[in-house]
Amino acid sequence: MARPDPSTPLRSLLFTPGSNEKMLAKAPHSGADAALFDLEDSVAPDMKEKARPMVRQAMEELRAVKGAPPVITVRVNDVTTGLLEGDLEAIACPELDAMKLAMTNSAADIREADAILTRLENERGLEENSIGIIALIETAQGLYNCHDICTAADRVVGIGIGSAEGGDLSNALGCEWEADGSTLLYARSKGLADARAAGVPFPTDGPFTRFKDPDGCRADAIMARKLGYVGKAAIHPNQVAILNEVFSPDAERVAYLREMIDVYYEAERAGAGAVSFNGRMIDIAMVKDGERVLALADAIAARDAG
Fold this sequence. Notes:
TIM Barrel, 306 residues, globular, alpha/beta, 12 helices, eight-stranded parallel β-barrel, single chain, two-stranded antiparallel ribbon, 45% helix
């Protein structure tokens, strides 16, 4: 996953505690685009070392299950804990697509993780840069340094913005979480803009923690999608279908865009640089945006058919 096609669907990433055998066993059947095995907050301190081989085994087993999440990620402990190298030693393997680095504060954090992964890839015969990094932006410092973080190593493929209610980012900023997203709008927008400016293909939003509130989850996901995020973390399996739906182009939009693009290119062949379509003036910028959406729709359709 270190250099994936930007149209790769990453609409839903389902957290699974790395020390919970029952939840690990259910991971292949979640319907999520990505399994997100956790070695950080959801694992008690005295279970962290025990969880490592459990997650490694879960990754290997997941790859063998038809219909399982096609992308495998693992959230590891941050560089200040002293656990990062041990986490990566345990999970660096062909099955791992990307690690999520908790509490990423600076480019130096990325470079430290990158150096460890480079060593492990070389030692284990893995392809160079085959393991991506998704930087979790969960602190004020990390938000401030987000663009530098995104450009610190070629293997950075995404960010995860810490937008969860009562989460580390809210605490670091001293803000009060609001269901309408107003208090974290700047943080979400800055993280998104920095990631896009750096050419990082997978900016993803944080989880909606009220897992018994599907309407709230949907509204939160729609807001993230409108800002430009490609997907969102989930903390419960019942959120996965909602996220997959929200971050997928609907059939009506796909049909509209296909017709719009056909009309534009037909006009272009006739020498026009812009064309009227359904009461709008269409130019090449709108066509490129439409082609991006259609690429995602086609990738989702191909995955569903496969």
